[in-house]
Specification:
- It is a single chain.
- 34% of the residues lie in helices and 25% in strands.
- It is α+β, with helices and mostly antiparallel strands.
- It has two domains: 139 residues, no CATH class; 39 residues.
- Strands 1, 2, 3, 4, 5, 6, 7 and 8 form an eight-stranded mixed sheet that branches.
- The C terminus is likely disordered.
Length: 190
Amino acid sequence: MAVDAYFTKRKFIDPICEKTDLNIVGRLREDANLRYLYNGRQTGSKGRPKQYAGKINVKQIDKRRVTQEYEDDDVRIHAAVVNSVGLKRNVKLCYVEFLNTTGEVNTTKMFFSTDIIMTGLAILCAYRARFQMEFNFRDSKQFTGLQNSQARSKKENTFSCKRRANHSINWQMYSTEWVEKKSSINLFDL
């Protein structure tokens, strides 16, 4: 499930991950509180073992602690498993540097997945697919005119939606009949 930065909240993500088998892919806010995981040897002394190796500077990440997974002319993708303080869980961080035509970093964005096995490129592709679906919904609403109604009551809105849906179905039937008739016309029939 791909979500925007607004839904990157523990109250939204925890119920979905606990009650379903879905994994969340989303964008992190620019001020996200993230920590590197500690992978070194434990000291063996008393007390809790060290879990975190420091806070992540989201403006400029430490390239020694993340791996570069993908690079082309447009993007450079770095990924690592990190701890999100706000989500209180480990997530797969996908740090994307968008490059300009000269190859310099233009902007950066951070994406995440609750599935820590997912690759950085797969996270970016899943998030981009979300926008393709949104564009399809927007275009279909504009084509059918569902956003043009000024009705206020539930009854008037229902009538308007049914009328517009009926209109689009009739238009599709008319246009396919017209194409079939046109394709059956021969040049010698004229």
